[in-house]
Amino acid sequence: MIKKILIFTSFIIIAVFVSYIQATPMVIDTDSGYDDILALIYLIKNPNIKIKAISITNGVTLVDEGYVIVSKLLTIAKKINTPIIKGNRLIPEPDNYKLYRFDNPKKVSDSILNINEFRAIPAEENNQAYSLPTIFENLLKNDKKIILVALGPLTNIAELISKKPYIKEKIKEIWIMGGAFNTKGNMECFREGVRSTTAELNFFLDPKSADKVISSGIPIFLVTLDATKKIPLSKEKIEILTIDTKKNSSPLNVINNKILKLMGSGEGKYLWDVITVVLATNPRLATYRAISAGFSDDLNNCGVIKIQKQMKGSVLKTVEKINADSIYKTYFNKINR
Ligand SMILES: [Ca+2]
User: Is the entire prediction scored with pTM above 0.70?
Assistant: First the structure.
C-alpha cells in the first residue's frame, strides 16, 4: 500500500514538474477593463501559462485605478508575488478621451472585487522598483522566450522597445487586441474637422505607440475588430459563460459571473480581450492572414491602420476565420475548475 502511495505521489510530482517546466512564460499589458479582468482570470487559471508580470496602461481605466483592480484580483487569486507594473501615465490624451472611458473602475474595485473584503495591495507594499524594462532584463537571463499579450493601448510596450531594443529578441510574439481594417471602428473621432468612425479604441488612444510596436519587427498577431465582431456577446453566450457557483464557488468564478452581468449583451458588446488571450494560448482556434500593415501617414488620423501594398512595418498576422463556439468553450473549460 505504502509503495502504491509512493508511486502515485511520484507521478503527481513528475506531472506537476513537467507542467511547470512546460508552462509558457507570459507578460500581460492591460488597461483593466471588464473584458481585461475576464482575460486575466482565464490566464491566472490556465496551468499552461506562467504569468511573469502584469503591466498597467492607460485606456478604458487609468493606470492608478487599474493598479487597484489588478492587485485586488491577484490577491483574491492568491498570486500576490506576481509583479504589477504601473505603466506610463503620460498617454497623449485625445480631446475626447474621457468620452471613451466606458468602464466603471470604482464599481469594479469597490464592489465586485471586494469579496470577503480582500484589499488592494497598497503601492508602497508592492515592489515599486518594478518596471517593464527591469522585468525583461531579468527574463533575459532565462532561455525561454516570452509571449507578450497587449490588451490596451500600446504605450508601455512601445516605451519598452524604445528603451531596450535588444529585448525584442526575448519576445517570441506579441498578441495585440487592436485595430480595425475593413470594419467600422468602435468609437467616433473628430479631429481637425474630420469625422472618423473607422478607428479602434486601443490604437486611437495612442497611435504613435501602436505604430512603433507594429513596425518593430517582432512577430505580431493582431486581433482586430474585424475578428472580434464575429463573436458578439449575446444573452445566450453570457448564460453559457456563467459558472454555476453552487457547484464551484471559487471567488474568481463569482467575479467572472458579476463582470459578465455588468457587461451585459447587445449591440457593441464583445469579449475583445478574452478572444485575444484564448487565441494566444490556442492559436489553432483561428486562421490567420499575413499582411503588411502600417498607419496612414497622418498619425493624428485617429489611429486608423491600413493594409499597405509597400512593405513598411512588420509582416503581421491578422485573425481571419475564427471558431466562436470553440473560443467560448475553451474559456469556460479553463475557468470552471
Ligand atoms: Ca482592454
Answer: yes
